[in-house]
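SAMPLE LOG
Freezer: B-3
Tube label: C17
Construct: single chain, 703 aa
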Amino acid sequence: MKPFDTILVVHWSAGKRAGVAPRKDAIWLGLTRDGISQEPQYCRSRQEAEQAIAELIKDETRAMRRLLCTFDFPFGYPTGFARHVTGSDDPFVLWDWFEGRITDAADGSNNRYEVAESLNQMFEGEGPFWGKPDQDRWPDVPYRKAGIRFDQVAENRTCDRVSKASSSCFQLAFPPTVGGQMMMGLPMLNRLRRVQGVAVWPFEETQDANVVLAEIWPGLIEDAVKAELAQQGKSAIRDREQVRLLANALARLPVEQLAKHMVDVPPLAREEAWVLGSGLSSELNVLVRNSPALRNDCFALPQGIHWTPVKEAHALLRDQLTPIAATEILPLAQVAGRISAQDVIAARANPPLPNTAVDGYGFAGGRDEGTHRLPLMQGRAAAGDAPTIVPTGHAIRVLTGAALPDGVDTVVLQEDVSIEESHVVFHGALKQGANARRAGEDVLAGDLILRAGRHITPADLALLAATGVSQICVRVPLRVGVLSTGDELVESGDRAKAGQIYDANRPMLLALLSNLGHQAVDLGRAPDNRDELRKILDVAADQVDAIITSGGASAGDEDHVSALLHDAGALALWRIAIKPGRPLALGMWHGVPVFGLPGNPVAAMVCTLIFARPALAQLSGADWTTPQGFEVPAAFSKSKKAGRREYLRARMRDGQVEVFVSEGSGRISGLSWAEGLVELSEEAREISAGDLVRFIPFGSFGF
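STRUCTURE (predicted):
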């Protein structure tokens, strides 16, 4: 099956026209396009929503994107109902029946209770429809369900029982009012299905359809919705979050799994319909959070590798890691420092109109050498003024930034003119177009101004604002947990016993990650106890997107991080040809990537900068970038052996780079002393004072 490019989830309503302010129990449209979550759309009426959906179908079809439209009400009734009402088992005949009888005014007034009365009258005794807002009206619709036998038609469909949905399509009032939603929704679906290229699942073959309409039940992701609402607090609107999260989950469902699911339905679904995602609740709840899931073997090394060069390790991380950070749409005021999730196109040219670059006088055409005298119009053109019209042969006073009036394409500087008897006098020559800016000479409407994966800067905000962009889709900051391991560690401020040391790694790494734009999460310290460490990792996996540990990452008896990852079947000990540093323990814990760093603070910081920094950027949706280095004269001498790439703590002084007095990894003071790193490649080298070496300032790493 060809995958869907765009997923729409519709929360429908049978109520009156809603107010201007977005609220619950209204119509909400959740959209995910090309894996990017869009801002949910609030619709005040069914007519507005139907028009929006029809426009979406047209737009996606024109753009050759495959669209899955899902709706939160039943597409069919229990077996036998359609035949009882229309004489046919064809659900579309029943849809036609409803479209021909349901009326729906612009204010939301409708006749669904009258239609329910006529349906109940077709059955012996009490009909199946029940529930109404007024006990005295519509006498053939019972106020409560008590007494209805459901012996002529079942109360629930088979798919409702499979999905464990408690609602019934015969309930018209008292939440959940699925029956009312269905009556007001089927006529809309019937109109949409007649659009060319649209097919309805599971009533029709949909494998090759450009647009597929399907039934969905938001209760499939109730666990994820509750977690999201608890995190957002009282201001959250359940329906809004439901459609957003469900659209994201469906978009992340593997296409092979979705294709099998859409084929694997019982024959009765051709009459009763079926809930898309029924039986996939667990998977969908996971997919809401994981955006998308990483492969369990994403850190696997090719066979035969023992000592991995830094360049090769970078290539493996770049090729095997994919973005997992969720997305959101935010106004410009809130996106500085975020990662753009999709390409951004200029909505307006910059400048939008031709304008003047100087204060002076504007007119049409260039002028040859000699003296020129032009009649001066009254008034002036200033920035923000609507363009006026200047007759041929006349001039007008213009100020810097003003849109050029019609009939003006050239400006002479005010310092070069004199005013004589309401005329402008100046000396040529002056080229046509002098001192004027063309419309769009900087950016044209429709130009690509920001690529997906860019770390958004204040300068980017200026460009976005100038070109009419008010909001963009960005990545949610990656939540990165930091955990220190080891019985020897104590917290700064506590009393250290003999043999204990203060935990230097955690405060360093937490600050470093925050400076890199991630949401750093303090996971505390773990003892040298495998069961306790397992519990901490289990809790952390539900709180963060990635985990960084320091200590316990090698293969010794007390290296519990690597041991647990090995037991989980997701460990790769990368033996990197780097100094300082030891093997990196990389793996997955309950779907969350884990970076096991050396316990030595110097090695931990260097390995974070060289490996964890670009890997986390890749996971957060940012472009893979190589830190900018500079060839500068050395203020030191060194004899370097072949085999490993080395990073020396360094700083610039008087145009030369000096390195810390000791290369020992235990000298933490060198980290504070340094302003960057000197990078020496794997080859053997004799370095003397004055030789050029590569210096990478800490700023090039992004902090």
